[in-house]
Every structure is written in structure tokens, then in C-alpha cells.
Amino acid sequence: MRKIEILYPEVGNLFGDLFNMNYLKQCLPDADYIETHLNETPRFAQEDVDMIYIGPLPEYAQEIAIEKLMPLKERLEEVIDKGTVILATGNAQEIFGSYIENDDGSKIQCLGLFDAYAKRKMMDRFNTPFSGTMKDGDETIRIVGFKSQFTQMYGDNGNSYVFDVEKGCGINPESKKEGLRRKNFIGTNVLGPIMIMNPPFTRYIMKLLGVAQPTVAFEEDAEACYRIRLDEFEKMNVEV
Amino acid sequence: MIRFYFALWAAKAAKVLIRLFHKVIKKEGTNFPGIVALKLCPNILARIVKPRTVIAVTGTNGKTTMTNMISDCLEAAGYDVTSNRLGSNIITGITAALVNNATLFNKSKHDIGVLEVDERSSILVYEHVKPTYLVCTNLSRDSLSRNPHPHYIFDVVQKGLPKTTKLILNADDLISARLKTDQKNVYYGTGHMEGDSDECRNIVNDIQVCPVCHTPLVYDYVHYNHIGRAHCPACGFASPEPDYEAVSFDYGTMRMQVRDKNGQIYSYHMISNSIFNLYNEVTVIAFLREFGIEPDKLVDILENVTIVSTRYRNSTVEGIDVISNMAKGQISTACSVVFDYVSKQPKEKEIVMMLEDAHFGDSENLTYIYDTDFEFLNDEKIYNIVAVGKRAQDFVFRMLVAGIPKERLHAVAQMKDLAPELVLKDGEAVYILYDNYSVDLENEARNIIENTIRERKNHA
Ligand SMILES: [Zn+2]
Predict the structure, then answer these.
(1) Minimal CA–CA distance to B447: which of B412, B422, B410, B411?
(2) Which of A212, B180, B246, B388 is the most buried (most CB within 10 A)?
């Protein structure tokens, strides 16, 4: 049975993003979904799991999560190199970067699995719609969603990004490359929840998990919503 | 100095102009003197006279009701009160209220100012307007495009508050209750109530772990979301003891018993039976007692206080109730409370759902619907739900994911297609759930529903 570990759902639950997992449960009911709390040892540290998910957190909880995961840095690196699927949405991806800089210039050291770093601007909330593309084999998948965040990420993700930007922006307002990618680690600030709003992306994740012919839950309705959004985003003029 | 007086007088002149042209400028006009004053003298808030006692009201839900109730009660107690109840709760509205309160020679016209303050404006406002009291209703998940989570709002309010301000805090909200814990604060709360659960039934609970040791908190009871009493099984951290606590409620006689910090219990008229308004009333009682109003006098005052509710409308047509409930779109906690309420009403019912905020532009961010408890609507008695609008498909999809059977769900893009989707059984209730930006649509939907009921009755 596939094991899917949800890290810190008691704090990493902003913007409805836990529905990425709630929905995956409906798409892939025959998997073991493990919820790990802040004071527990993550399952991936004890045995191999098939997927790890971590969602957007309040800043205080993001810092606790960094503290909790820091001793597991090498293990995480190993897990990524093995090809375990990791999905980190919203500011959860920053945990895996090199550091987070506060408004006052102070820095919080992160896991350092990516060179990119984040800068917080706590009185300057950044909101934008987002659309972009990614490759699923030979096929190009289109992605729609939203960004709503206090941080921007900087550093070179030219060879390690997730989506090519069509509308909106990448890891910062000047960037055209969204997210952080290393093997099957996917980090992105695209909210929606992304797996709800993008059935092709959910099928892509399911393929990474070894599902040969993936179908998503309520596929017809999911596709209908997706098509309406694609159409709207097509016509939309997005200024960042 | 000259600049200050020029700004003050110009702002007052602006107010006269607005009165002359009020039909043109309408509601936005109440902030206009504030805008003028801030433009001409950016530090006007520092210079302008403030009432001797300033009561700031803040928090995610219930600020406006609270500001109105406190102002009304203080006036009923014979105090001379000004407030920003007609203007906005950000810096322009607060400046406008203070311009209004100042004489031409910068003397305060009123003794007491009750100011509703937007949480995000805390730092800007409290730097110059130092409240004597701060009444905080609660900090909850709000519109994500501005306030992504209540811990963020907590930090903003905490940073802005002066040391001299006396805080009146909600003991049942473990987020705002932790404001300025180094000071002697006053806490209010409501005890265990019928309908409480022993764990959170909502998707959103913004304080699930102990702030000291990060162990999952154990809730003694939960009213809704994270509002209730909790303790940490590991380190002993717990909700503060309320100084004023509503200990029992009698919905038949509409009276509630409130214990004060001396252990005395007084019986007050319950001005509403909704949990939000019960909290509002306990908050007002805690504040007014601390302010020095004698308990017996307060009991009398609260006999006559009313709450204006524009969010609820009810009619009965041919035996079918048509009930409108406003559920603030983009605010998951507000929508969840309405869903919970509707699901608990006894009749068979249909829901017409119009929660989208079309004004948000071409493709609004709907992530909040995955923070909202559509799961509450998964109830056999709610046998038909029609989502109306451009985003109707997204709402239907959300409800499918909530486990609601597809045959109960319908999406129509336009209001004109609503009538054929309605079943309208004898004796049922139709709920119109609408957003504060879709008040016009509520009227339209209501007309369609009422007319369809009559037409079908005539044909039968
Ligand atoms: Zn603890």
C-alpha cells in the first residue's frame, strides 16, 4: 500500500491547501495517509514513504517546522535523491531553501536543499492570478491558480523550476520560472488548491506515484471547472 | 501649527461641502474630511485633540456591532459619546471622526470616543491615538488577500498597542487572549453551551497546538472554530479564566446569567440568540463593568438595546419560508457559521447559493471555499442546492468533494435559469445565501423564488 505522509497539518493548513491531500484521498483511496504532528518523528525518517506533503504555514509555525526538520536534513536529501514525491505548497517550500530574510534583515537558516532564499515583507501582501505550463512526458500541461503571499524567493532556479510562467510571475515578480524542482520534489506558491484546480497536475502526481492510468475524483466536474478557468485566464490581463 | 489648523479647517469645510453635495458623494463622503486632513497635514492624528477617554474596538468579527452597542449603552448611561460608526475603520475614517469631534480651535466636543479600528491599521492609528481601553472581539481567519492568518493579525495588533491601554479580551479565543500577557487584562467568555462539541468540527482551527510546547491542545469545549476553552496536556498551558462569564442561557425567557469577577451573578436580557451576538453582549457587559457602570444600571440599559440586522430577511409565501442570510464571501468562518445554522433548522430545505464576489475581477481567488465547511450542508433535509453565478461550477465541485450527492447539486450561470431548478415542496424553507456584494442579486433571487411559488400554486 502506498504511504503518503502529511507533515504538520495542525499548522500547515492555510488557504484550504490541505484539500490537495483531501482530494488525493478521494482520487487514490487505497493509500495509507499518515498525519505527522510537530512533536512526532516523521514517518519518512523511520521508513520509506511514497509521498510527503506539507502545506502553507503561519510564519511562527514555519520556523518551528524548520527547527523540527533540520536534524533530518540529510535524510530528506536522501529521500529526494531516491525519487520520493514531495509536494510543498505556499511558503512551505521556503523551508527547503537556504534561508528566509525578515523585514529587519535578520535571517532564519533553512534546510539548504535549494540555493534559493526567501524575503519576507510583512506589510506588503502580494496577490496575483497565475497561469503556466509544465511537461508531462511529451504533453504540455497548463496550470491555473493564484498567489497570495508575503514573501518572494530569489536565487537561480533556472534549472530547477516547476512551471514556465504564462501570466503572473515566477518565484519573484521579475521571474518567469515558478517553483523549486529537484527530482520529484515540487515546491510552488501556486494556490487553488493546485490539485483541485488542475486535474492534469493531479494525474501527473498520481503517475509519479506509479498509477498507470490515473483518473481524478469527479473527473467530469473537475474538468468543467478547469476549462472555465483556462478560458478566463486566456482572456485575462495580469499585471504584476 | 498653521499647517495643522489649515488642515483642520479645510477638513471641516470639506464636511460642509459633502453635506451640500451628499447625493453625489454618498457614503464614501464620510471619510472625505479625513482624506483632506491627511493630505494637507500628514501628522494631523498626532496634533488633533482626542476625547478624554478613547475606547478602541478591534477584532475579526463583530467590530461594527460592538462599536454600535458600546456607543448606545454609554449614551444610555448618560455619557457624551462620539464614534466613527458612520465612517470607515481605517486611518481616513478615524481622522474624519476626530476632525468632527474637534472644535475650530481644536478642543474636544465629546468626552468619550468609541473608535472601530481595522486590525491592520493598528500601528498607524495607536501611534497617535492611544486608547484608554481596547476591546477585542476575536482574531479569526479573514480574507486571505489581506490577512492570511490570525497569528499575523495578532502580531500587528500586539506591535501597535501602547503599554497604557487596558485590554478587554476574549478568554475563549486563545489567539487574541494572548495579547499583552505581561499586563493585567480583563477577560470575558461564555461557558459551556448546548450544541458545543469537545473538539473542533470545522476545517479551520487556527490554534491546534500549545503555543508553549507545540503539543496538540485538548479542548474542554468548542463553540466554533477555535473559540472555546483548551488546555495543554503536556505543560499545563490553558485558556485564561474569564473575569466575566456567561454561565447559563434561557432561550425561552431570553435571559442569561453572567458571573462577574467578584463571583456575583446578574441576569441580563439576551438581545439575540445567535452565538456571535451572545459574545457581543458578554463583551459589552465586561467592558461597561470595567468602565465603572453599576451592575444594576447595566441590567436596565441592556433591556433596551437592540441590534440592527440587515443580514437576515424572512417571508412566507403559500406556506414556504423564503429566508435570506448574508454570509460574507471570502471569509470562511462567517460562511461556515451560516452553513451550520441553516443545516440545523428543522424543515426540509433548498438553498440558493450566491457567494461569489464577481467584483473581484475576471477570475476571483476562491481558495477560501476549501477553508469553509460545506460539509455541514451534507444533510438529507437539504435536498436541493442551486449555485448561481459565474463560479457556480466551482461551488458545486466543492460540494461534491464535501461528499454531497450529485443529484442534490445544480449549477446555473445566470439568475434567469434559477426557477426551473427549484423544487418548492409544500411547507419547506428556501434559504438564499448571499455575499455582502450581491445584495442586488438577493433581491432578484427572492423575487424569482416568490413569483415561482405563486405561479406554481396558481397552476396547481
Ligand atoms: Zn504545552
Answers:
(1) B422
(2) B388
